[in-house]
From TrEMBL:
Transmembrane segments: 7-25, 90-110, 122-141
Keyword annotations: Membrane, Transmembrane, Transmembrane helix
Top-rank lineage group of the source organism: Bacteria
Lineage: Bacteria, Bacillati, Bacillota, Bacilli, Bacillales
Protein name, per record: M50 family metallopeptidase
Length: 167
């Protein structure tokens, strides 16, 4: 019974904290870049439900659904013109880069700070989740049905590659 309870606690920790945090960092990478490169509002959404906690900071709106897992989206608009493709690619690339940097910072924390067992476990899980998110989003693929809310949508890498091919 104790191992079942541990499994439930770890599962809830991943769905309620680790996955949403790594997803938020990824989407924040897109969102902050979009704020810098455009004059339009930006929305970051964690979860697929319309029932969320909303925060607004200037042109940035953050909508968070509890236990959102790995589901996150960012909505932004880039001015059309000669810089459109460049700006869009930079915005798209900064999501995966943010995941990679977050994973690396987590690694440095684990490597150079002697942490108790539970914080070590949590930061290690964040490091792995962020690294997995980097690879899944940088690969140029359309997500298969097992990705749920993402099914049939292009990854960041796929969209970047498509923008680069279109002259």
């Amino acid at each position: 019974m104790e191992s079942f309870f541990e499994f439930i606690v770890i599962f809830l920790l991943f769905i309620g904290f680790i996955f949403p945090l790594s997803t938020f960092i990824h989407e924040l990478g897109h969102g902050l870049t979009a704020l810098v490169l455009s004059k339009y509002p930006v929305e970051i959404r964690l979860g697929s439900s319309s029932k969320s906690f909303d925060w607004r900071i200037g042109r940035l709106t953050i909508k968070m659904q509890p236990f959102s897992g790995w589901i996150g989206f960012v909505q932004y608009r880039v001015t059309t013109g000669e810089d459109y493709k460049r700006d869009n690619n930079i915005i798209l690339l900064n999501g995966p880069i943010s995941s990679l940097v977050f994973s690396f910072l987590s690694y440095l924390l684990l490597r150079y700070i002697n942490l108790p067992e539970i914080p070590y476990f949590i930061i290690n899980a964040i490091m792995i989740a962020s690294l997995v998110q980097f690879f899944i989003t940088i690969l140029p693929i359309k997500y298969p049905f097992i990705f749920g809310a993402y099914r049939n949508t292009p990854s960041d890498g796929y969209t970047i590659l498509k923008l680069l091919k279109n002259k």
